[in-house]
Design a protein that fits this description.
Radius of gyration: 17 Å
Low-confidence stretches: none
Shape: globular
Helix content: 25-40%
Order of helices and strands: EHEHHEEHEHEEEEHHEHE
Structural class: alpha/beta
Number of strands: 11
CATH class: Alpha Beta
Mean pLDDT: 94
CATH architecture: 3-Layer(aba) Sandwich
CATH superfamily: Acetylglutamate kinase-like
Number of domains: 1
Distance between the termini: 27 Å
Length: 239
C-alpha cells in the first residue's frame, strides 16, 4: 500500500499526552508508546514525519487576569512546556526503534538542536522523526501557528491534526447530539461557518499557502495509517 503523502507534519495537543483524569499525570507514557507504534508504521512505509506538540498538559498561560502572569511571560513558560513534551515523545519514539531529532526555537543546546530549516529537512530525508519544540519562539503565537509555519517551511504535503474527536462537526459533538460531521470542507466554508479548526493565524497561513489539513482521532489505533494511505478518516480541509 502506497502512502498518499510523502512528508507530513503531525500536530498533537499537549492534553492528548495526559493520562486519565484520576491519575493527574501530565504525561502518560502508555499513550506515548501507542503513538510511537502508530508513527513507526508510517515511517516504515517511507513517510517523512515532523511533529509539533502543544504544552497545555503542563502549563496554559492564556489568562493573565487569573494567573497574574503577563501574557508574554506565560507564553514563554508554555514554550518550555512544549520542549518537555517533545523530550518525552522523543524518548518514546527512540524506545520504539526510531531515529529522532528535537529542534527548539529557543536555544537550549544541552537538550535540543536549534531550529534550522535546512537541517530539519535533511533529517527528514534521512528518515529521522523531527520534533519541533518551543513553538515559533515568539509569544502571542500558538503551537497551532507553529505547526502551520513549520509545515510550510519544510514543504510538508499536509498537516495531520490529531485530536480527541474524529473530525470537524457543525457543532461540538460532545454537547450537541445533532452535530453533523464533515468528510470534506473548504477553508472558506470553515470561516463562513465559524468552525474552530485552528486559531485564525494558523488557519490563514494554511489557506494562503494551500496546505491541506486533516483533522482526525489520533487515539483510535490504525487511524494515522488510514489517513496517510488516503482512506476517508476524519475531515479534510482544503481549497
Amino acid at each position: 500500500m502506497l502512502p498518499k503523502y510523502k512528508r507530513v507534519l503531525l500536530k498533537l495537543s499537549g492534553e492528548s499526552l495526559m493520562g486519565s483524569k484520576d491519575s493527574f499525570d501530565p504525561i502518560d507514557h502508555r499513550i506515548i508508546a501507542q503513538y510511537a507504534q502508530e508513527i513507526k508504521q508510517i515511517i516504515e512505509m517511507g513517510v517523512q514525519v515532523a511533529i509539533v506538540i502543544g504544552g497545555g498538559n503542563i502549563y496554559r498561560g492564556m489568562n493573565e487576569a487569573e494567573t497574574g502572569i503577563e501574557r508574554a511571560q506565560g507564553d514563554y513558560m508554555g514554550m518550555l512546556a512544549t520542549v518537555i513534551n517533545g523530550m518525552a515523545v522523543q524518548s518514546g519514539l527512540e524506545k520504539a526503534g526510531m531515529y529522532t531529532r528535537l529542534q527548539s526555537a529557543i536555544k537550549m543546546e544541552q537538550i535540543a538542536e536549534p531550529y534550522i530549516r535546512r537541517r530539519a529537512m535533511r533529517h527528514l530525508e534521512k528518515g529521522r522523526v523531527v520534533i519541533f519544540g518551543a513553538g515559533t519562539g515568539n509569544p502571542y503565537f500558538t503551537t497551532d501557528t507553529a505547526g502551520s509555519l513549520r509545515a510550510i517551511e519544510i514543504k510538508a504535503d499536509v498537516i495531520l491534526k490529531g485530536t480527541r474527536v474524529d473530525g470537524i462537526y457543525s457543532a461540538d459533538p460532545e454537547k450537541d447530539p445533532n452535530a453533523t460531521k464533515y468528510d470534506k470542507i473548504t477553508f472558506a466554508e470553515c470561516i463562513s461557518k465559524n468552525l474552530k479548526v485552528m486559531d485564525m493565524t494558523a488557519f490563514t497561513l494554511c489557506m494562503e499557502n494551500n496546505l491541506p489539513i486533516v483533522v482526525f482521532d489520533m487515539n483510535k489505533p490504525g487511524n494515522l495509517m488510514s489517513v496517510v494511505t488516503g482512506e476517508k478518516v476524519g475531515t479534510l480541509v482544503s481549497q
